[in-house]
């Protein structure tokens, strides 16, 4: 049996994995879109986005749309690589 330490603990969280899965398939996504797609609370999503950003897996851009704050996220090369490695590790566990 393979050792589960190979799985990136940062991506092993359901919400962070959902965020990364969304961002893999789009150029960028607004906070509200990610919140709707993941059914997360704004507070929890903010914390998880912060963790992904701190790790360098996503870039977060804060701006304004009119007078409303706008947070946009996009996956980085480092994040894409980490996501692909995570998926490959899961596939290896499934095959065993």
Automatic annotation (TrEMBL):
Classification via InterPro entries: WH-like_DNA-bd_sf (IPR036388), WH_DNA-bd_dom (IPR027395), WH_DNA-bd_sf (IPR036390)
Domain Winged helix DNA-binding: 15-94
Pfam families the UniProt entry points to: HTH_34 (PF13601)
Protein name as it appears in the record: Transcriptional regulator
């Amino acid at each position: 049996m393979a050792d589960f330490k190979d799985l990136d603990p940062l991506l092993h969280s359901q919400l962070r994995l959902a965020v990364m899965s969304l961002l893999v398939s789009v150029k960028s996504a607004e906070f509200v879109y990610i919140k709707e797609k993941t059914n997360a609370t704004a507070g929890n999503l903010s914390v998880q986005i912060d963790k992904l950003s701190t790790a360098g897996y996503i870039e977060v851009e804060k701006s304004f749309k009119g007078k409303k704050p706008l947070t946009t996220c996009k996956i980085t090369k480092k994040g894409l690589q980490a996501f692909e490695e995570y998926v490959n590790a899961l596939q290896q566990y499934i095959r065993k």
